[in-house]
Design brief:
By secondary structure, the protein is mainly β. The protein contains no helices and eleven strands. The strands form two sheets. Strands 2, 4, 5, 6, 9, 10 and 11 form a seven-stranded mixed beta sheet that branches. Strand 7 and strand 8 form a beta hairpin.
Length: 123
């Protein structure tokens, strides 16, 4: 059973940093690209970042370029999202996900994702 468990979300002040973790299970992480997306109340789902199976292809949404960094540790079955210079508009629930079979980015769809972790940026 494909599973994702996101963690690391918190309340943080503008300009602060957070590191999100996504622990995966039920499949071989080495074979799949993984993405992070976020969902804020009343807003559409937004793709944040994607990392290919080998880590050689990385893509970011325009709103987070230069501030967020995605990485992966296949040995630990974990994908990370380092978020710096956080803004109030980054407030959302963050999810990690994969599609059915992509090794490269971008993902064709979000077929599997976890329960999400809440990030709130506020003073």
């Amino acid at each position: 059973q494909v599973q994702f468990v996101e963690s690391g979300g918190d309340l943080v002040q503008p300009g602060g940093s957070l590191r999100l973790s996504c622990v995966t299970s039920g499949f071989t992480l080495d074979w799949f690209a993984i993405g992070w997306f976020r969902q804020a109340p009343g807003k559409e789902r937004e793709g944040v970042a994607c990392i290919s199976a080998t880590g050689g292809i990385i893509e970011y949404g325009d709103s987070v370029k230069g501030r967020f960094t995605i990485s992966r540790d296949n040995a630990k079955s974990t994908v990370y999202l380092q978020m710096n210079s956080l803004k109030s508009e980054d407030t959302a629930v963050y999810y990690c996900a994969r599609d059915q079979n992509s090794m490269a980015c971008p993902l064709e769809e979000y077929a599997y994702w976890g329960q999400g972790t809440q990030v709130t940026v506020s003073s």
